[in-house]
Amino acid sequence: MKKFSGYRCSVCKEEYGPEKFIYTCLKDGGNLDVVLDYQDIHKNISPERIIASTDRSIWRYLPLLPVNDQGYENTPLRAVGWTPVYQPGSLAQELGIDRLWIKDDGKNPTASFKDRASAVVVARAKEIHAEVVVTASTGNAGAALAGMAAAAEHQAVIFAPKTAPPAKIAQLLVFGARVFLVGGNYDQAFDLSVEAADEFGWYCRNTGYNPFTAEGKKTAAFEIWEQVILREKLTEPLNIFVSVGDGNIISGIHKGFKDLQELGWLDQMPRMYGVQAEGSAAVANAFKAGSEEIKPVKANSLADSISVDFPRDGLRALRAVTHTGGRYFTVSEEEILAAIARLGRVGIFAEPAASTAFAGLEKAVREGLINKDDQTLVLITGSGLKDVKAASMAVTEAPIVEPTLTALRKALSN
Questions:
Q1: Biggest CA-to-CA distance, the chain
Q2: What is the spatial distance between Cα 269 and Cα 359, in angstroms, rounded to a whole number?
C-alpha cells in the first residue's frame, strides 16, 4: 500500500517527491507537511480495522504513518502512545463544566509526549540507513530520542542548554546518548545541532524542523478520536487545550485531525486552544495582534520545555488555532505552579510545561470562554518527575516531627 506521497510547504505550497531528503522548503525555508496518499489509504484501510486493532501503541495507526513496520515488538518503542484518558469529576466540578477529560502523556516510556515524535523519527532513520540521529532539546525531546534510539540500537547525539533540569540530563546519559551541554539557550543549541548535522551527515530530529516529528505527534489526535470522540459519541466539537513552545505538538495534533477529515472519518474538527507561558509567548503575541508574523521573544519561564525565543513551528501552531476557531492564552508562573498542585490532587503529576495547558483552561473558564456544556480535553505532555524542583515550588514543605505521638498531635493541630 502506498502511504507517503511526498511533502508540501506550509507557506508557499511547493511540493516535493518522497525521494527527496529534505527538512524544510528549499524555496522559503517553510515547514513541510508530509503528504499521504489518502485515496490509497481509504481504499485499503477502514476505521473499523483501526479500532479493532489489539495493538495499544502508536503503531496501531501504522497504516496512517509515513514509515514502515520495523519490528519493534519487544522494545520500548512498542510502548509509545495509547496513553490514558481520565475524567476527574472533582476538577470538572470545581471548574463548573460537565465534561472534562485529561490525557496523560507522562505515561509514555520516557515520561513525555515527545516519545511519539522520536519513535517515528527513529523508524524513519532506520529506513534511510542513518546511523546517528541528533537533536537539540531542553530535556524531553532529547530523552525521548535517547530512549527510542537505544531501543532501536541507534546512536543519539543530544545538545541541551546547560540550564536544563538535572533529572532530564540524567535520562539522556542513562540511555547512552552522547550529550553536549551548550553554554547558551535552547535556540542556540538548536542552531548548533543543525550545523553539526550538516557537517557530520547526522539525521536531524529537531522539533519543527524534521517533518516526521509532526507525524509522530499526530498520533495523539488519532487516540483522542478513538478514546473520546468516538467512544463518547460526541456530536459537538471537542475543545482541546495544549501547551505551546516550539509549536510542533499543537500543529502535529491538528495534522492528525486533518488526516482523519481527509479520510472522511471525522465529522467535527475539534477546536484547538494553545497556551503559552507569559515569558515565552511568541505565538500568542501573533494571535493577539491578528498577524501571521511570529516575532522572536527573549524567553524566560520555569516551564523549560516550552521556553523558546523563536518557535520553529510557529506558523502552523498559530494556524492550528485560527483554522479551528480556538484561541491562544498566556499564563503566569504562579498560575503554572498552582495548576501542578491542582492536578496533583486528582493523582496527575505534571511538569510545568504540561500544567500550563490546564492553567490555560482555568483562565478560559474565568473569562467565560469555556462554559458548563462545553466538552473539553486537556493534554498533559510530561511527568512532574522531569522537574522535581518546580514541583517542590508548587506545594508547602512537609513538617519535621519527633517520633512521638505528642509531637504528631502538635503538628496535626497546626
A1: 76
A2: 23
Q: Is the pTM of this model over 0.90?
A: yes
Extents of the domains making up the chain: 1-44, 77-111+214-393
Cross-sheet strand order for the sheet of 178-182 = 178-182, 155-161, 132-136, 203-204
Residues 192-230: tens digit of each pLDDT = 999 999 999 999 999 889 999 999 999 999 999 999 999
Contact 35, 320 (CB under 8 A): no
> Do 106 and 383 meet the contact criterion of CB atoms below 8 Å apart?
yes
Do 166 and 390 touch, CB atoms closer than 8 A? no
Write the CATH number of the domain with boundaries 77-111+214-393: 3.40.50.1100
Average pLDDT value for residue range 336-342: 96
Give the closest residue to 260 by CA, choosing from 308, 220, 213.
Answer: 220
